[in-house]
């Protein structure tokens, strides 16, 4: 403002024109630099999001990358031209201190009160960008498990088996568990009575598993089933662990099939299950 | 102030008029820009809130969108004219530093002490904007479940089945569980005694379910009921899991109906339930 | 200060008078604006707190609104005249930078150390303003339940049934549970022995409830009592859930009445309660 | 400094004297304002702390109020004269920027590292000011219960029944439970065997209570004792709840007296207590 | 710098001398004020730490007070002369802005990263200053109990009975429990069988306690032992609570002595202890 | 800007050229210093990451070090030239205050909202740099255990035995447990009946272990197995602890082999396992 | 810059030389002060770390002290010359504001995002400096126990008995438990049947302990073993506590030896262990 004032208070018209020219030159330089900067930013965004990505192509789809790219472009467009605009305003002599101070106070308020929002969006960006999960995946986040129904920049919507939808802000998503791997484990243990022959029980079960595998009775099987061995000797007998792998989302059904098979096999061979045991010292008392 | 002072200390009336003119010009430019900015902001708000929204039309109602829009418009109106006002004050030579410093200190105080309030309102805005739930929905927030009775910018009021109202600040609402889906699950498990034939028990139950379905005895049924299979082999027998889906809010009643049906069916076919088993080594002692 | 100094260093008395006049004018403008601002603020406060409020008139009483209004008016009075005062000081040439810097440091100290205090008052304001509870209400806050004895801007005093007073800072009050609704639930479940006929047990209980209702034996009853159905099949028999609603604060007494009624009814009809069951394999050992 | 320098570089002695006079005038104005401010603050403190307080006179004692008042006066005295001192220094041309910057850094360090200290003192002030408890009260703070032995601005010392002293910083005192009310509850429940007549058991107990009350056998009794009713039907019989109120600190002794009375009364009338029940299916095995 | 530059660019030697004189005067004033300030601070420290303290003389020893005083004096010496030094540098025309900015950034880094350190030292100072415990005291801090072995400004070293040393930063010490009181409680409860006469059991125990007291068989006894009364009526009989007080650190040994005495007394008088009771409905099954 | 303006408003062409020359000189100096600084930084990075590292060579591979080095070089390149660029802009008279203010607000926003991101990357850098684990290691982080599948700057991907992938932001990785040591423990305890001879049981087991070791029946054995001794005397007998060490990832299989071996050995020598013991006082009641 | 510009725009060569001389003088003064400051800091570091330390010499080794000293010296060297460099730059007229602003923003980013790193290093420094533990010590940190394998400025590596390495950032190390004391406790309790004579059981055990001590059968014994006394009277009998002290790391082996000794001694003298007791009221039912 002083520049303008001084030049207006100046002595000759030539001086005035010179001053105006200088100001126009400055504005032009600012705008050109802003334009160039934006061009560079846009190319970086495109490179980052739309390039051919060899090491994880299946998870990141074209559509999502374009959405992210256009979002990032808008954000940088507004940022660059906000700064350029303020520099122009200052060049023509309008004091932007109050504008900036207000922005600073607002920034503080955002920083404290709305940090959850910023956190949500930043986390959401990385969830999408890194392809941690896709719509339709069965995932576990915090104490919630279910099928991803919708992924957004701020929230993720997960429908669990109970039918309810869990709406989780992305900032709360610190650890994701993705259950869509190739071989998902179905594993449980069965207690065998102490008197039974462990070797025989294992042999009998392995035989039944072999037969079921040959008959194709177990759906979506990837590996196993087999008896891992003795995983505990406790009050209730000798625990045998049964292990198998299934296609994603079939592990629960496979587990139920295997439990039934194990029960029937042990019954058929007369091998008894183990229940807790106890010694009791009995002191008969007079009737009360 | 210096501008004004200099011009008043100036030499000629012409210079004074020139200075006053410059000031008036500046004020005019500021006000015009503020007005234009407000126009743009308002149009963005309307576009964001009142546009035709295809992917979630049922949850967001017209009324709420209008409320949000008018609220946002008020906030931006006061913000823009506060900044413009300060720029005008500065133009006519009144130092606004003290005003801004006071605002800064206040901003700090808000930032620290009242961040809960800002957090509540920001969260509340997004709950309304994203339509996470509506008045009348049965939802779960934190350790509270119940029917939403009132949704505001700062708090959400939920009435649980016990009759009490839970008033939850929106900033505490980090994860929402919405129970208003189409098929809500009713699921429980029944232990069958080890001696019973698992195949027969499943067949008998499926037959009873089929009959109940045909007779329409189960209200608000969406899918099932069916026996999922053997989900546990434990101390208390073989656990069978029963699964069904009901309309929202009917899952509890359906669960009670199914439990009674299962009990009656098993009784009718003489299939015994399983209770925990134990081996006891009995050592008789002399009477004491 | 420079203004004053310059004018005092000035050349003629006329210039001095002119400068003094300008300063007086500035002070006048500042004071007038401050006064107007205060008037607007006061009217907003009154509108917000004392207007006729249709949607929740019962909870907010006249007395409290007036207290809040006068408090808010004091706060804004001191704030506005603090800022105006500093602007006046600056106009007459006293540098207020040190004052403001001290205020800034103090603001920081408050921001960090005393944020609990600010948080308490802000929360307290909203508890009163939104009418979340009134003196005499039975509420639950955190792990405390009791009758509200006193509500203040900083603390809430709750007397629980044990007779002790819990003094809770309002900043700790994040989720309020208000038990003063119309129909408060009294609900419990009774285990029936497996051998009993579930249909008959339900019929017998419903009959007894009907009779008690007709005789008006149940005080403060709002709805029910009725048998909801079978809510669990467990080790200890078939669980029936009994449900009723009472006037606020009567739900506990009603629950006790109903439990006694259920016990007497089942006894009268010879329906046995269920206790846990267990299979024991008895291995006699030689006396030790 | 510039003012002073300019005046010293000035042309005539008269100008110098004028400048010195102006500086002295400024200092005088600053000191007068500081004095007046202090007077006002002191009067506010006295009004706040020493006024006749109708609604809670018993808890706040004269002595404590005077301590708080003198403390607050010291704090405001140092604050006001620190600010005034810096303004004087600046008036005579010494730059206080470095002083203030150092104070700012120190303020930051305090803000972060020593916030616990500030928090403790602020909380302590309000505990004393609001009279949440007095020396000798039996209170509960966090997971500690005991008699308050000493209250300070930074810590509260509580001696629990075990004899140990708990030293709690006031900033940790978020929720206080004060057990010094008039009628403190003594309550417990007794299980009655299923076979017993509930009506008779209640009548017998009420009769015994009546007698004990008449004989004055129960010390410090405020209300009750009476049988509230059936509060649970469980595995171990029908639970009756006994309720009474005692003078503060006598509730535990009263509870012990009542338990003994209940035991003796039930014994005298041959009413059996309830123990858990269980069905056992006994499978005899061959001796092992 | 401007002052110096202006004076060097000045017109006459006299003016130069005058300017240099002014600067020297300023430095002198700064140093004198710093010295005076330091004197005042030192006297305050001595008054605070070394004065005769009536209300807690035993805990605070001379040695520790002197250590604290010399520490505080060093800290204030460096602080005051750092500020004075910078003011002198500025007076002779060297810009200290960069120094202060660097200090500010460092202060920020300290504020965030090293706040634990500052917190530890501040807490440590108050632990020493308030005399919360001494070396050799048996204290409880957080989940640790033991004898204080070493107290420092940053950490406290506690050796627990197991022999291990716990090194706790003072910032983690929020609540201290000091077990060095005069009468430390030894308390436990004994279940008496339902059939026993409660009056007689109490009388027998009191008699045994009386005898043990007279014989001086209980070491370090302060008060008791006595039977408090019936503190519970449960599944396992009537619980009697025994209470006594011992010298600090002797309460555990006293508890062991009393338990043995109670056991022997009850045995000698044939009063049976109570064990849990249970009703069992026995259903004989055919041998399996 | 003032420099430039003043020189343009200057008197002669020579002066103008002089001013332009000065500006060019400044720019040159800035760029040269920036270049030198960058060279130094690059050499430090290379030294830090690519030097021969004696004390942990196996964990840090060449490839990863190069990736980290190029990343660090890019970051420092952009930082140095951003600062240099702004200094150049300022030299030629363009005010960079608004640019910096915007950067400051953005920095604040990042500081608060995106601190998780910065924290993740900083932690990730140190995980890679310190070689805490490698792809293929079996590690435990928080409540997750599994094989590391992918390590990045922001997240670590761990596949647990169940087949699911856990995606953990590096900022959540506070404590890493690496299970890839040489001798991983397989340890469990077996309860022996009270009547058995402890010496004999230990001897028998040690003999069986010796034999298995000689036959090479235990795969991947590193040390042991041996009987540690009696680790508990409880309700269920005397507990013997068995201890062995295996190659990493083989400890679970070894544990299962040993459990089976222990069971068979005890059976072969007729040593009975211990089950919980209980005394029962039997009161016969009349049939109900 | 103004200084330089003014001098170049000045009138005579003499003035120019004078100005250049002044600048050179300032630079010299700055560098000399920086050098002196560094000398003082280095001497303080050496004094702090390398002095003869009487009260804890064994834990702090020469090697570590030298490492810490050289690290601290580097840090202070870079800090002092960074500040001095910026003061020199400013003296020769280059504006360092942008440099400092960038540093400030970076400091903020570090402050928020990387505070964990700073916290780790500060904590690590004090762990090394105070000698809280050494490589080879058996320590407990948080929920981890094991032998310290490596201590660094950022992390501590602990190998637990299971063979796995726990890598803990030093910032997470808030409370350290060091198990390397002279007499580590081995303590356990044994339940004796109610019928046994407590006096005799204690005498028999003390005799066996005496004998084992005389025979030197207990390795690494420091104190004890002895029977502390009766520490509980419970459902399962009278609990006797056995106590002993061993050399560090031998307490577990000693505990196992003592348990075996106690078992054998009680068996040899026919003193029965206690098991839980229970009264059962037996109601025979008709066979089902």
Describe this structure in words.
The structure is a homoheptamer of 288-residue chains. Chain A has 288 residues and is an alpha+beta fold. Chain A has 3 domains: 2-113, Helix Hairpins, CATH 1.10.287; 132-178, SH3 type barrels (Roll), CATH 2.30.30; 184-268, Alpha-Beta Plaits. Chain A contains 7 helices and 9 strands, in the order αααααββββββαββαβ. Chain A has helices spanning 2-8, 13-50, 62-91, 97-113, 115-130, 198-215, 251-268, and strands at 138-141, 144-151, 155-159, 165-169, 176-178, 184-192, 221-234, 237-246, 277-284. In chain A, the strands form 2 sheets. The first copy, chain A, has a 5-stranded antiparallel β-sheet with strand order 4-3-2-1-5. In chain A, strands 6-8-7 form a 3-stranded antiparallel β-sheet. In chain A, a hairpin with a 2-residue loop joins strand 1 (138-141) and strand 2. In chain A, helix 1 (2-8) runs antiparallel to helix 2 (13-50), helix 2 (13-50) runs antiparallel to helix 3 (62-91) and helix 6 (198-215) packs across helix 7 (251-268). Chain A is elongated and about 125 Å long. Chain A starts with a helix and ends with a strand. The relative contact order of chain A is 0.08. The interface between A and G is small, with 3 and 3 residues. Strand 9 of chain A pairs parallel with strand 9 of chain F, so a sheet runs across the interface.
């Amino acid at each position: 403002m002083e520049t303008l004032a001084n030049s207006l208070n100046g002595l000759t018209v030539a001086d005035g024109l010179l001053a105006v020219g200088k100001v126009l030159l400055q504005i032009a330089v600012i705008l050109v630099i802003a334009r160039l900067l934006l061009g560079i930013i846009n190319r970086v965004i495109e490179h980052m999001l739309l390039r051919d990505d060899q090491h994880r192509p299946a998870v990141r789809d074209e559509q999502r990358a374009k959405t992210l790219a256009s979002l990032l472009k808008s954000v940088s467009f507004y940022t660059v031209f906000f700064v350029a605009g303020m520099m122009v305003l200052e060049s023509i002599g309008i004091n932007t201190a109050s504008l900036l101070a207000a922005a600073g106070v607002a920034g503080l308020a955002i920083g404290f009160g709305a940090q959850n929002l910023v956190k949500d969006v930043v986390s959401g960006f990385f969830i999408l960008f890194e392809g941690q999960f896709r719509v339709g995946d069965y995932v576990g986040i915090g104490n919630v498990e279910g099928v991803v129904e919708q992924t957004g920049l701020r929230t993720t919507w997960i429908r669990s088996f109970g039918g309810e939808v869990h709406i989780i802000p992305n900032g709360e998503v610190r650890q994701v568990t993705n259950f869509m791997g190739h071989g998902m484990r179905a594993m449980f243990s069965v207690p065998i009575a102490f008197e039974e022959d462990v070797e025989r029980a294992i042999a009998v079960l392995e035989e039944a598993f072999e037969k079921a595998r040959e008959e194709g009775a177990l759906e979506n099987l990837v590996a196993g089933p087999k008896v891992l061995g003795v995983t505990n000797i406790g009050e209730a007998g000798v625990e045998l662990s049964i292990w198998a792998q299934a296609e994603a989302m079939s592990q629960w059904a496979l587990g139920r099939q295997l439990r039934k098979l194990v029960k029937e096999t042990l019954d058929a061979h007369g091998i008894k299950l183990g229940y807790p045991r106890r010694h009791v010292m009995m002191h008969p008392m007079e009737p009360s």
